[in-house]
Batch of 2 targets.
Target 1
Amino acid sequence: MSRIGKLPIKVPESVDVNYSESEITVKGKFGTLQTKIPDTIAITQDDNILQVGLNSTSRSDRSMHGLYRTLINNMVIGVSEQFQLTLILKGVGYRAVVQGKEIILNLGYSHPVKIEIPESVSVDVVQNTTVNLKSCDKELLGLFAANIRRWRRPEPYKGKGILYQGEQVVRKAGKSAK
């Protein structure tokens, strides 16, 4: 049995969890999330504690046990607290602006980069170079941040690019003059 899968999930008072044999829905103050679960995963609820179990002992089902426990836990945390990521634009002239439902990035290209913001993600730009992303869906938040970062990955010579907060860029030595 999975070590992670055995851990209980504490559900806050403000979160409502509904599940059937094939789907689980989690509602909270920051939104509603739902996902499909396989028939081999069994969910039981006692008061404010969810327990994720297994209906079979096959190797492939046991490998999914910890995964689905973590997905359900992320849903509960997301609708009660929200997840947050911070991106830092590091480079001369790099800046970001939110206009309507899209974020406009100036990243040294001859044109501004326009990226549409997903519905459940909120974007705040601080001092033109710091972008705060918030969402209740951890997967969607990570995909959106990776989509933004894809336009300018951090490069190892000058350390310029779009970095996650706290990320350290391993610097390389450039050419040395003779």
Target 2
Amino acid sequence: MELAEIVSFLDEYLQIVYYQDVSNNGLQVEGRNKVERIAFAVDACMESFKGAIMADADMIVVHHGLIWGGIGYIRGIVKRRIEFLLKNNLSLYAAHLPLDAHREVGNNAMILRKIGSEPQEEFGEYKGVKIGYSAELNELTAASEIAKKFDSAMLLPFGREKIKRVAAVSGKGCFALNEAIEEGVELFITGEPEHEAYHLAKEGGINVIFLGHYESEKFGVLSLMEVVKEKFGVDAVFLDIPTNF
């Protein structure tokens, strides 16, 4: 399969031009033209790159890319990462906000599906675009039972014991906690725990589940991998490299 064809599909499918993002979404480093195997990972780091080479991948697709608003200097860690990619002819594609917000394979849509709901209303405004979703559960459910659906989850039980209205904004999503409180969300699910969120949630009377930044953003990468495999018939592998944050 041609690299250009895969990149063109991802650009359009993820609608990368729609987002004002600090990440340079799209093909960040160009490698070989022919792609037979693709690695998927959350983070663009040396461990991911080496894992992709060990898996005989020609391309790696990540959520957190290597280039954020441009490269000021090509030296140190940045130099070593770029050098490794170029020496191994390994292409790097990044999708940050586009993969948070996507209704079909995005992190937040998949988090809601994990708890038995479908993304309904767009939620969580960031730089003029809503990157999360809210939804109604089919029945009242204990927040503690929802937390058990995830491998690692920390619950702040500051709202009603049984809830129906939920919202999800993955990663560092506490910026949307006030929005959740104002809109009457009963359970807010995000990734990275933030100190300020504790008292805000307590005083706002809302349940919050923290999944961890990494764990909350595996969902989109895994889902996108399945779409690409089916679309192009290429081999694919997910590189699970947790950060415990």
